[in-house]
Amino acid sequence: MSRPVRVRFAPSPTGYLHVGGARTALFNWLFARHHGGVFVLRIEDTDKSREKETAVQIIYDGLRWLGLEWDEGGDKGGPFGPYHQTERNDIYHRYLKVLQRQGLVYEDEGAVRFRSPRRPVVVDDEICGRVEFDRSLEPDMTIRRPDGSWIFHFANVVDDIEMRISHVIRGEDHLSNTAKHIELYQAFEHEPPRFAHLPLILNQDGSKMSKRDEGASVGSYIEAGYAPEAVRNYLCLLGWSPKDNREMIPIEEVIALFDLNKINRRNAAFDLNKCLWLNGQYMRQMSLERFCELSLPFLRAANIKTPDTAYLLQVLVLVRERVKLFGEVPEWVNYFFTDHYSYDPAAVAKALGKPGALDRLVQLAEAFRQIPDWRADALEAGLKSVAAKAGLKAGEFIHPARVAVSGRAIGPSLYHMLEVLGRDRVLSRLERTIGRFSREQV
RNA sequence: GACCCUAUCGUCCAGUGGUCCAGGACACUCCCCUUUCACGGGAGUAACACGGGUUCGAAUCCCGUUAGGGUCGCCA
């Protein structure tokens, strides 16, 4: 009864990895890890498209990005291969013969059909419970096309038998199909695996999530700059819960707590907003090294050169609290790495356009030149004393200064920003800004 | 249409007959912190789909209705 736990994720290479599929993979992986079992990746590529190579690669990349490494299959091989259905023809033929010998199949216009026993079938599902299907009115299913290729239901069952799959954990869209599958298991006189049908992931409006929908593809999270651990955490929360109101939960704990019968039976709508929030949480709690590692690809893509790692880390500390996606990092830090930053017109108009703003920058630059110890607290004291002397509020200096050194109205704490930028950059940027906007008569 | 699954705040989840005039999180509103933007802290709005049962007692059990989703392919 207690066979070794072997589960599989069996995607077909469609050119993208759907979040629903990713969650199915995740739950299979969690189940395998919880039980010390094996997680198999099988590619259901019965229909051979030209894009297959890249489509399969996209699946590998998506799963690996999420940290869902498989034990067998895919590009790894294993004792029950091959793991691509197109390469398993001989096996399917062997199983077809078994059915033929029993007279359970017949030809119909060149296709091969399986003769249904038309008896009620009971699916004892780990998640949905006992479900009974009346099969008496169902048409016989096709298992092979006239061109010799195999139909999903047949190949799927044969593979699960051959690969010794103990638990089939898949989307609820397969619940009805399971009755057909069980008829096949019976015909092969093979005990069916345990079944667990996961509720589906829907769009925010309750409609079915399809390829086009925002956030439907795992690739979109990679591109936007999500942390994989955050997306994975979010996916865990869709249909499963640690039961103690925690939102952020380490994957090791999820593995320890994971249990099929604690899975919700209700479809879940994908809340991109919450996923984004969770990502922000992860960004703030991960190590600075990790933060840097995940930022780097985006900095490179934005052509931002960061030769000085120590400086880069200081910069990242400043923006870490303010971003929710790694994709946002470049726009937040670019002026730390180049003097050729652009000035946001609205920010310029607001902060530098005020009467006397440039004068105040002159005073500020003068005061900053006298500061011996270029640190945030000294800069703050310096700025405040200049403001006091002028009889103005600190803000009258802060805002122009920010725009002058960064070109924008939004950014990290001014004093810390100045400290990290360093004396030379700050002073030259102040001067440059004064010169430029005096000429332009802002 | 037939069959199957589901039904707690807008969304995700907690709740498995009394401790629930229902708890947490996201989002939203307000306040505090901060002369930027965020973070953080605090407060608030907001739900047991409906109708019947069962029971001393129901969000929790049963039936029906309605709604949503799924399956009925020589797609997977």
**How many β-strands, per DSSP?**
12
Roughly what fraction of the amino acids lie in strands?
5-15%
Q: Termini distance?
A: 82 Å
Q: Stretches where pLDDT falls below 50 for ≥5 residues?
A: none
Task: Give the ordered list of helices and strands.
Answer: EHEHEHEEEEEHEHEEHHHEHHHHHHHHHH
Rg, please? Answer: 30 Å
The SS-based structural class is mainly alpha
Count of helical regions: 18
Shape from CA axes?
elongated
- The level of helicity is 40-55%
Largest sheet: 3 strands, parallel
Q: What oligomerization state is this entry in? A: single chain
Strand order of the largest sheet: 1-2-3
Mean pLDDT: 94
Give a written overview of the molecule.
By secondary structure, the protein is mostly helical. Helix content is 48%, strand content 10%. The protein is built from 18 helices and twelve strands. It has helices spanning 19-35, 52-65, 89-101, 152-162, 177-187, 218-224, 228-236, 251-257, 272-285, 288-301, 309-319, 329-337, 345-352, 357-369, 376-390, 395-406, 414-421, 423-439, and strands at 6-9, 38-41, 72-73, 105-108, 111-114, 121-125, 129-133, 142-144, 167-171, 194-198, 201-202, 268-269. The strands form five sheets. It has a three-stranded parallel sheet with strand order 1-2-3. A three-stranded antiparallel sheet has the order 4-5-8. The protein has a two-stranded antiparallel sheet with strand order 6-7. Strand 9, helix 5 and strand 10 (194-198) form a beta-alpha-beta unit. Helix 7 crosses helix 9, helix 10 packs across helix 11 (309-319) and helix 14 packs across helix 15. It is elongated and about 100 Å long. The model has no long low-confidence stretch (mean pLDDT 94). The chain binds one RNA strand of 76 nucleotides through strand 5, strand 7, strand 8, helix 4 and strand 12.
